[in-house]
Structures are given as structure tokens and as C-alpha cells.
Specification:
The structure holds 2 protein chains of 2 kinds. Chain A is an all-alpha fold. Chain A has helices spanning 7-15, 22-28, 33-45, 48-65, 67-70, 102-137, 140-153, 158-169, 173-200, 203-211, 215-251, 263-272, 279-306. Chain A has 13 helices and no strands. The relative contact order of chain A is 0.13. Chain B has 2 domains: 33-77, no CATH class; 91-315, MetI-like (MetI-like fold, Orthogonal Bundle), CATH 1.10.3720.10. Classes of the chains: A mainly alpha, B mainly alpha.
């Protein structure tokens, strides 16, 4: 609470309705982190698309976090006697060509998919923000270099860049994360660069400079928080794209390597053994389709909640 | 004025291609790992991998390799296939028409189906069919195209046993027949995307003041929608075509592999599996060139339609 010392102000304040406490105003405007997250979630869930998306995403994250507890069996336990078993009470999704329980493999595949997607987006996002802010804050020559770098990366269709890199350095889990992250950097970087350039000349930044705030303080406490909203929306919209990219690489056998289960490699297994039964391939297709749909719905609802202008249509 | 704009855009495009390939060389050089052992497999003898490294020029400094690559490209030489000994440029030219046909057919389907659907949804806003279209488009937009490919393959070739759909085919009729399904699969997501984009921008334009004025003048609804609103609403949709073609090229890789078509994507995949480094490099280069040129073409045609961009007065 701010204490006014001037008597006239106290009198004026008494005659007015009680001033809300500082944290209350902050909450009402959605300024505290917890308050704004809850508000955004409420807004997402208030529309049918967002509600469905949020439900699917929550389920997937739940599966990923508790994979060992949800999976009914060891995802890598072989049981050659019961290979290609159809879905049953013992094996909810049936078994694969090595008799491994497909339900457990899908559940563990969720963990791999989420791990790859979230870490790739986090790396791409951090690199993009660093390069974007650096481009806006340093000399025009460096800004141009960074822009050329962004142009260079986005001159590749992302799966082509991923395939080309994996071809040379060999497929592995960290490689897939890095390659996917790299394809994301230009998008985050460009948005950050444009946003930073527009924030830098805002009056409140000038005011901070006049007060004597240091450059790092301005960047970390004022520029980055103001840049973050569109970048976070972009990140949410990119999650389904990243899931699809990882699944494509793994489907081609150039992503996650066996015996680790991933949604893409499970689809590949099912597709290779179509003659033994349709269930594994169909289930793998459905899992991927539902997951990408859920994250797409969630991302769009988040965009609508944060940027009301996009809600008009 | 217009000439300098075109020149500047072309220069940027060339710079993008050069820096993209340079970046690829740098990345493969700096990422830890030994390309020779990855490309030749762990069983390769030390002597053989040394020979390979010299042949591929992997022992030369990075800048020399980049210069060497572009000097060769300038003379139309993309290197030689290490397995068959054929020039990579011949291999690429052989399969390129198939990929271009697939991409063009998909864009054509996406535009001819997606745009009318978008107009319909915008003019029937809030109706039940609008809602159905909205749900269908988001389902197809979000779904990775190779999933649709697998579903279609199973339904049409395994269950229904319809027309020959695998392979590229011989003779134009056969080729056309085998093109339909993969092109349709590839275009489904973009039908939804184009319909959604056009719907949004058309609804926005229909709410503008000049449309209200036209209505007040008693101009027919049909004329307002198709001659006044559509022209302005199409611009943002056109702008995304460049991105769409790029994503199509990427999606085509998987579709070509699934449908066993000969194309840039399947050639790249075969080269990766057989560790055929010059072919990988050549195909990636050609894809990058096509991708950048398409974006350039879209950008230039866009500026032709909307003179504000040529003048550099973008309001964004």
C-alpha cells in the first residue's frame, strides 16, 4: 500500500470507495502470473474448440508425466509367443511384431513425443529470443547478419533440412531435438526482432532510461516481457507442427531409434505389418491425429484469448 | 522504381540460396560426429574411409568446399552418384517433373476446392454448413499428410482394391491416374487452410465501409461479394501460397515414399538410406532453389496485384 502523507489526499481518499489492494488490482487486470494463467485457461475452456483441445492436451500431458504408472506392461518386454495379438483385455491395443504391448508403447511414445516437442520448442524459442533481441539491440550489420541467417534456415522446407542433417550426423534422440529446434529459430527470431524494434522506442522504455535503469534491466524486465506474448502464442501453434515433424522422421526410420517407442515409429511398425492386422496402424494414426488436433485447437484458442483481434471472424 | 524492387528481391533470393547451402556445409562440419563413419557405416576400413574423405573433399577447409560446390553448380555440375556413377544433375532432372506434377496438381486441387468453400463459408456465416466446414477444415489442417496418405492407401488399395495407385506409371493416362490420389491426399490440408484464410479475410472485407456504401447504392449482393470484396480478400490468401508450396514440397517427400512414386523426395530418402552423399547434397540444393524461387514468384506477383507493396509502404 502506498501511504499518502498529504492531509488533503487522505480526505479525498476517505470520501472515495475503498481503494482495492495492489494485488487485487493486479489480479483483476491479469497482471500476476498465476492470475493471468488461470484467466487465460478459463478463456480457452470457454469455447467448445478450446475446451476439447484443452481436454486432449491435459490427457496427453498426464500420460507423458505418469507413463510408467499408466502403462500396463514394460513397453520393451518381448513376448514372441503372442506377437500380432489383436486388442484384448490383456493387451488393450494388441501387440506388435515382437509381442510388445502396444498400449504401453503408445503411452511411453507420448512421453517421447512431448519430451521432443517441448524441449525442441524451448531451445528454438530461447535461441530465437536471444537472436531477435540481439538483432534489435546491436549494430545494423549484426542485425543484417542475423536476418540473413534466419532467411538461410527458412530457405529449407523444415523436413528437408531435418533429413539433410540427420543424413550426415546420424539419427538419435538429441539430434532430432536439435534439428527440430533449429527449424523453429527463424520464426521465433523474426517475431522477437519485430516486436523488440517496436517496443524499444516506446515512451515507457525512454522513461526507464531517464530513471537510470541499466540496459540489462531494461532488456530483461521490460523488453522481453513485452515481446513474450506473441512468441508464446507462436510456440503453442508450433507444437502440432513439431509433433508431426518428429513423427515423420521416426516414421522414415530417421528419427527416434528402436527400441525407444515413438508415435512415428509405432506407425511405421503398424504400416509395415498391415497384412497381420489393421489395428496397430489405425490406432497409431488415430493417436497422432488426435494429438495434433488437440494441440492445434489449444493453440488457436490461446491465440484468440491473448490477441482478441484474431477473434473477430 | 519497379525494376529496382524486382532486382532487390532477386538479389535477396540468390543470397538466401547461397547462405542456405553455406549454412548446411557449416552445420555438417560443426556438429560433432564423423561424416565418413556415418556415411560408410561402422565396418568401413580406415583406408577406405580415408580415400572417401579425400574423394569427397572432406579434408579440405570449409570455405574451399563451399566455393568448390558453387563453382560446380555454376557450370551445371551437381556431382556424381557414388553408387551408379551417373551425374546427380541427370538423376534430379529425371525425377523433377514427377515432383512438380504432384505439387502443381495438389496446389490446383487446393485452390479450386478451397477457395469456393471459403467464399461459401463466408457468405453463409453462422449457418450449420459453415460450422461443419470449420470443424472439417481444422481436422484436416492439423492432421499430418502422411497419416491421411496411409489411411487412403489402406482404404483404396487394400480394402477397395481400386485403380492402380502405387508408382509413377507409364504413359500419360496411367501417370494421371496414379497422380490423383497422392495429389488429393497432399491437398486436403491446404483445402482447409485456404478455405479458412479466405473465409476470415472475406468476412473482414465484407464489414468494411465501402461495402456498406455499395449496399446502400443497391448493388446486388452477388456483385458486391464477387467483384468488390473478393479481390481485396484474395490478397492475404495469395500471400500464403508461397508458404503453402514450400510445405507441399516437404510433405511431398513422405507422400512420394508412401505411394512409391519417383520424385525428389523418394530420391532423397533412397540417397539417405544408401548414404549416397552427393545425391543428398544435389537434391537438397534443388529443393532449396525451387522453394526460394516459388516464394520469389509469389512475392513478385503479389506486388503486381497490390501496388502498395512495390512502393514499400506496407502498413504492418
Amino acid at each position: 500500500m502506498v501511504h499518502d502523507t498529504e492531509p488533503t489526499a487522505i480526505v479525498a481518499a476517505r470520501s472515495m470507495p475503498p481503494r482495492p489492494r495492489l494485488h487485487e488490482t493486479a489480479n483483476a487486470r491479469g497482471l500476476t502470473v498465476a492470475g493471468s494463467v488461470a484467466g487465460v485457461l478459463r478463456q480457452i475452456a470457454s469455447r467448445p474448440g478450446g475446451f476439447i483441445g484443452l481436454t486432449i492436451v491435459t490427457l496427453i500431458l498426464f500420460c507423458a508425466a505418469l507413463a510408467p504408472h499408466i502403462a500396463t506392461q514394460d513397453p520393451n518386454a518381448l513376448d514372441i509367443m503372442h506377437r500380432f495379438a489383436p486388442p484384448s483385455a490383456d493387451h488393450l491395443f494388441g501387440t506388435d511384431q515382437l509381442g510388445r504391448d502396444l498400449f504401453s508403447r503408445q503411452v511411453h511414445g507420448t512421453r517421447v513425443a512431448m519430451g521432443v516437442a517441448l524441449s525442441a520448442i524451448l531451445i528454438g524459442l530461447s535461441l530465437g529470443i536471444v537472436l531477435g533481441v540481439a538483432g534489435a539491440y546491436t549494430t545494423p550489420a549484426i542485425e543484417r547478419t542475423i536476418t540473413i541467417l534466419f532467411d538461410a534456415v527458412s530457405s529449407f522446407p523444415s523436413i528437408i533440412l531435418a533429413l539433410a542433417l540427420v543424413a550426415v550426423v546420424g539419427p538419435s534422440l538429441p539430434m532430432v531435438v536439435l534439428v527440430v529446434a533449429l527449424t523453429l529459430v527463424p520464426q521465433f527470431g523474426r517475431v522477437t526482432l519485430a516486436q523488440t524494434l517496436s517496443v524499444i522506442n516506446a515512451p515507457f522504455i525512454e522513461a526507464e532510461q531517464i530513471i537510470g535503469a541499466s540496459k540489462p534491466r531494461i532488456v530483461f524486465f521490460h523488453v522481453i516481457p513485452n515481446v513474450l506474448a506473441p512468441v508464446v502464442v507462436l510456440a503453442a501453434m508450433e507444437i502440432p507442427v513439431v509433433i508431426a515433424l518428429e513423427a515423420s522422421l521416426s516414421f522414415l526410420g530417421l528419427g527416434i531409434q528402436p527400441p525407444l517407442a515413438s508415435w512415428g515409429s509405432l506407425l511405421q511398425d503398424g504400416y509395415q505389418n498391415l497384412s497381420k492386422g489393421y489395428a496397430p496402424a489405425i490406432i497409431a494414426c488415430l493417436v497422432l491425429a488426435i494429438a495434433t488436433l488437440g494441440f492445434t485447437l489449444c493453440g488457436e484458442a490461446l491465440r484468440d484469448a491473448i490477441d482478441p483481434r484474431s477473434r473477430r471472424a | 522504381m519497379a525494376g529496382s524492387f524486382v532486382l532487390r528481391r532477386v538479389a535477396t533470393a540468390v543470397l538466401s540460396i547461397v547462405s542456405a547451402m553455406t549454412l548446411l556445409f557449416c552445420l555438417t562440419a560443426f556438429i560433432p560426429g564423423d561424416p565418413a563413419s556415418v556415411l560408410l557405416g561402422p565396418q568401413a576400413s580406415a583406408e577406405f574411409s580415408r580415400q572417401f574423405i579425400t574423394e569427397m573433399g572432406l579434408d579440405k577447409p570449409l570455405y574451399e568446399r563451399v566455393l568448390f560446390f558453387f563453382a560446380n553448380v555454376a557450370t551445371g555440375n551437381l556431382g556424381v552418384d557414388v553408387i551408379t556413377g551417373r551425374p546427380v544433375s541427370t538423376i534430379v532432372l529425371d525425377v523433377l517433373p514427377n515432383t512438380i506434377a504432384l505439387a502443381l496438381a495438389s496446389v490446383l486441387i487446393a485452390v479450386t476446392v478451397g477457395l469456393p468453400l471459403g467464399i461459401f463459408a463466408a457468405t453463409h456465416r453462422g449457418s450449420r454448413s459453415d460450422a461443419v466446414l470449420a470443424v472439417a477444415s481444422i481436422v484436416f489442417v492439423s492432421m499430418p499428410s502422411f497419416i491421411l496418405g496411409i489411411v487412403f492407401l489402406v482404404v483404396f488399395s487394400v480394402w477397395l482394391d481400386w485403380l492402380p495407385i502405387l508408382g509413377t506409371g507409364t504413359g500419360w493416362l496411367d501417370q494421371l491416374q496414379r497422380l490423383i490420389l497422392p495429389a488429393f491426399v497432399l491437398s486436403l490440408g491446404y483445402i482447409g487452410l485456404l478455405a479458412r484464410l479466405l473465409r476470415t479475410s472475406l468476412i473482414e472485407v465484407l464489414g468494411e465501409n465501402y461495402i456498406r456504401t455499395s449496399r446502400a447504392f443497391g448493388i446486388s449482393n452477388w456483385r458486391i461479394t464477387y467483384t468488390y470484396a473478393l479481390r481485396n480478400a484474395l490478397l492475404p490468401t495469395l500471400a500464403t501460397l508461397g508458404i503453402i508450396v514450400g510445405r507441399l514440397l516437404g510433405g511431398a517427400v513422405l507422400i512420394e515414399i508412401l505411394f512409391a512414386r519417383k520424385g525428389l523426395g523418394s530420391t532423397l530418402y533412397d540417397a539417405i538410406v544408401s548414404r549416397n552423399f552427393p545425391v543428398i547434397q544435389g537434391v537438397v540444393f534443388v529443393v532449396v532453389v525451387i522453394f526460394v524461387l516459388v516464394q520469389l514468384a509469389v512475392e513478385l506477383s503479389y506486388s503486381l496485384v497490390d501496388p502498395r507493396i512495390r512502393a514499400g509502404r506496407q502498413e504492418r
